[in-house]
User: What shape does this take?
Amino acid sequence: MNITRRLFVIQLFISLVLVSGMFLFVQWYFDRGFIRYIDEREQQLTDSLVEELSMIYTTDGGWQALSTSPKRWLQLVTSVTGAPLMGERLEHRAERLRQEGWPPRNIKPSPAGLPVPMEWRIRLLDAQSAMIYGPKDESLSDMERRPIRGNNGAIVGYLGLSKDQGVFSAAHDLQFSEQQNQAYFIIALFMLLLSAGVALPLAHHLLRPIKDLTLATRRLASGDYSARIQHQSNDEIGQLACDFNELALTLSQNEALRRRWVADISHELRTPLAILLGEIDALRDGVYTLDDNALSSLQQEAQLMSRLINDLFELSMSDIGALDYHKVALNLGAAARDAIEGFASGFAEKAIVIETAGLDETQAVVFADPDRIDQLLSNLLHNTLRYTDANGCARMTLMQRDKRVYLTLEDSSPGVQAAELPKLFDRLYRADSSRNRKTGGTGLGLAICQNIAEAHSGSLTAAPSSLGGLCFTLELPLITEETV
Assistant: This one.
């Protein structure tokens, strides 16, 4: 069963439960409300009749006149119940009452399930509970009696009302109640069918974005990264559609980067390889003489390829987190001082003056791998040595703030345009066209440095330098008890 059918069945089941519950509750409430309505109505009628009988007793001075006038009794009872007898019907009923007593025998019975008319259940008793109008042998225990009082407040008689057992014992058998229940059942069935008719298109409407998401996911899995979902809403499905579109965009960008990455690597490897093959062919054809200069050129191209392959391997290992890090408590200032000393002769050859600040004064201890930190600092110093103009200057500064340590390396011109700064850490990227393969690097060193910084819970950023060149900032957390 697919989701559409499941959702349809769930909605239909909920509608069935609600409609059935409503039907049973309305049926139960109506049956009891109908009985209560009959009780209240009979209560009002008996109160009115008690007042009339009290006035008749006072006017007549007793029950004698009323007891000998069946016609008057019939008029009184039927007028109170709202169906007064008149004319020949009144005369005929009065005659039967004289002969048969109250209530008359052989009265046409009520339809099955309907209550016995109230006028046939009314009884009149005197102050001693002797029957004036009613069966002489009727039990008083089955009768509800209301006292009739005279002017002085004394009880002069009782108005009795015989209970209709059919109404109180089986209200659901009442014809009117059955008709109402049938009407409720038809309404409930209609509402259930209406719910089913609404549930199916509603299920399709709710699941349409999910179907779109399914189709778009299949397109995405097949390699079509242009798949997008056009669903504008602020609900969870709309958020899911936005997340899917973000995922598709990210995959598209990653695919473009992968293709560019493969193309760049191919280009970087193809160039030195083509030079190697060309020089080898020239040596074989006798164009070049196999001497120290030729061997040096071949070695240079081979070293470039080796360095590029090593950098690619190291960067790929760093990306997947497979580089080994043996972290210990490390004095970053001392590590920076050692790295600078390793490049002292190189800076001296180009007459580049390197200044330091805070390396010895600041006790910046970090939890880091000494070899990786040395690799990072060496790459940065190597870039400074390679690209800074002769007779220039460089400055390395160490300071700490808010449990973080900041190591900056600035150099003099040439600089890099502001638009090029975010791309410096891209793989195989060179900001200066003069940075060729002979004098420049592989374009992977800064990417490796950034990965090393992030592996130490830090960051490496580039910005313009106040000296006219570039300023690299390494930010690392200071060592804490939790770090160790």
Confidence is low (pLDDT under 50) at residues 167-173, 433-440. The first strand starts at residue 122 and ends at 126. The chain has three domains: 3-173, 236-319, 328-477. Residues 3-60 form the longest helix (58 residues).
